[in-house]
Design brief:
alpha/beta; Aspartate Aminotransferase, domain 2; Aspartate Aminotransferase, domain 1; 2 domains; three-stranded antiparallel sheet
Length: about 400
């Protein structure tokens, strides 16, 4: 019997909205791509994006940056990290998170995850006590949100500053409160495979006057900070502007123009992702040996990717499964490999951190964890086809 092959690419995104293309052309024709290159009385596209995204988040301040990783770096710097400070982070994340901690002069201290790919709260408190860390950079990895009420309570109890990596949770919420509004600072990515697409880009949000002032100077504002879309009064900058170095990580007007056009459609697109996620989830759930994460009622997620486990697989079967699905056009990523591959890497491959922690619970979970993107270029029907291919290949290998 001929097997069905899926033919659509997993990396193809939807086109930028026409309004974004028109705004981009306008910026290009003006020649004023730099965020501070404005006419008298003109507000730059970058400043307007900051205003609009802060309003979307319901927060006072937003800073537009070159990337999500850069925003994580200056978030730590603006929060007051000192060289050698311990920074807690969940062990299942992508390399830019420990990279940002290293770039800020910190030392990553990793925390186990649970079966739903969220930070293990019991281990988090243990590591807070052991490490005496002053910072917790929680990564809402692949859109999985931990109990943020409990996380916030632990941070408050132990005097830990919470910084949220919301690269995969833009548009999501916990118990009716937007992801990114629980911590002192939140960081978002607008890299191509995130929920807003400018190729590369990042957004930092906060309600704290001094943090946004420091972050703005770090981003490379020189003394032009008043041209930003959301900044505190000038007197907040009086010492900060002299004590804070310039790291030059500004977003340009071209990317900001593209993002501004996408922001009004963000919530609608989040709903579209979830339709596709639920269709795929429903199909995979028909196979009892495929283990799907449980989504709590309080979590309003954005299903732009899906993770699952096949706990009965050994390493040879894992490789065969990934290869067989690829042959049929379904691109799966495996996060359990000892060697980094593409954008996937396991925590023990970040040797530059000097971290030698053993996290057996995380290793066990990742050993059979598979990941796939859900681009909006796929239809609901496509998700059924993809689910059937995964089901068939898992069943054939397991026998």
């Amino acid at each position: 019997m001929t097997k069905t092959v899926f033919s659509k690419p997993f990396t193809q995104q939807e086109a930028i909205p026409d309004a974004g293309i028109e705004h981009a052309i306008k910026v290009l024709r003006s020649g004023r791509l730099h965020r501070y290159n404005t006419l008298e009385g003109e507000i730059s596209e970058a400043a307007l994006l900051e205003q609009e995204y802060a309003a979307y988040m319901g927060q006072r301040y937003c800073l537009a940056c070159t990337s999500g990783g850069y925003s994580l770096h200056i978030a730590l710097k603006a929060a007051g990290i000192q060289p050698g400070d311990a920074v807690l982070s969940n062990a299942f994340t992508l390399a830019p998170v420990p990279g940002a901690i290293d770039n800020a002069g910190g030392k990553p201290v990793l925390v186990e995850i649970d079966n739903n790919y969220c930070v293990d709260l019991a281990h988090l408190e243990t590591m807070m006590l052991q490490s005496k860390a002053r910072f917790f950079m929680i990564s809402h990895m692949r859109g999985h949100i931990a109990d943020m009420i409990a996380v916030s309570a632990l941070c408050k109890k132990h005097g830990v500053t919470l910084i949220e990596d919301c690269a995969h949770t833009m548009g999501a919420s916990w118990d009716g409160k937007k992801s990114g509004s629980f911590g002192k600072i939140a960081c978002f990515s607008t890299q191509t495979y995130k929920h807003l697409n400018s190729g590369e880009g990042g957004l930092l949000t906060t309600d704290d006057d001094e943090i946004i002032a420091r972050a703005t100077i770090y981003s490379g504002s020189y003394m032009l900070f008043e041209r930003h879309g959301t900044v505190p009064e000038a007197d907040v900058f009086s010492d900060i502007k002299l004590d804070t170095p310039n790291y030059s990580g500004r977003m340009d007007n071209l990317r900001a123009a593209i993002l501004r056009a996408q922001l009004p459609g963000l919530d609608q697109n989040c709903a579209r992702w979830n339709e596709r996620y639920r269709a795929l989830e429903s199909r995979l759930a028909q196979n009892s040996r495929i283990l799907l994460p449980q989504r709590p009622e309080q979590e309003s997620y954005v299903g732009s990717s899906l993770q699952f486990r096949v706990a009965d697989f050994d390493q040879q079967q894992v490789s065969a499964f990934v290869d067989n699905c690829a042959t049929r056009g379904v691109e799966l990523k495996w996060f359990g490999g000892a060697e980094p591959h593409g954008f996937t890497s396991r925590y023990d491959s970040w040797r530059y951190t000097g971290n030698t922690q053993q996290l057996p619970q995380t290793l066990e979970i990742l050993a059979t964890t598979f990941d796939l993107r859900i681009p909006l270029t796929f239809s609901i029907e496509d998700m059924g086809i993809i689910g059937s291919i995964i089901d068939e290949e898992a069943t054939e290998i397991l026998g």
